[in-house]
Design a protein that fits this description.
alpha+beta
Length: 146
């Protein structure tokens, strides 16, 4: 009797375990898809707390101007280097022109030939960390021009 009932139990539980193996991943996938849709919907909507001007004012890159001249890289020698936290400000001398640029991370030392790929410019940029105002500052990527 126990052999027959255990055989029936084994037969009856096989489809149930197969369903369980299928339901758990599908349930997880459904929960993930629902969370993804909610997040996508929330990120697509503009923020109510901060207006469009407040968001741009907090991000210096939000107000950059990029002209056609910014597409050409600036090449020259580093004349001065000012580390400021995670940013580094460099003065690049190209002939008689002195251009101030800021980049994320470290920059080459003075006297090094560099190339600046501009992401945009900002006039009268004030750096609170350096307590200094730059008449024009180029935001970009500074790399060695070897």
């Amino acid at each position: 009797m126990t052999l027959v009932s255990s055989a029936r139990a084994a037969r009856g539980s096989a489809p149930r375990s197969a369903r369980r193996r299928l339901v758990k991943p599908l349930l997880g996938l459904a929960v993930f898809a629902a969370l993804f849709l909610v997040l996508a919907w929330r990120l697509d909507r503009p923020s109510v707390a901060a207006g469009p001007l407040d968001a741009a004012a907090g991000n210096p890159l939000g107000q950059l101007s990029r002209a056609a001249a910014d597409r050409a890289p600036i090449a020259g020698l580093v004349e001065e280097r000012l580390p400021a936290g995670s940013y580094t400000y460099v003065a690049v001398r190209s002939g008689e022109n002195l251009t101030w640029a800021v980049t994320v991370g470290d920059a080459p030392p003075p006297g090094t030939p560099v190339q600046v790929r501009s992401m945009g410019r900002k006039a009268n940029f004030h750096s609170r960390r350096l307590a200094r105002t730059f008449p024009e500052l180029v935001f970009g990527i500074v790399s060695r021009a070897d």
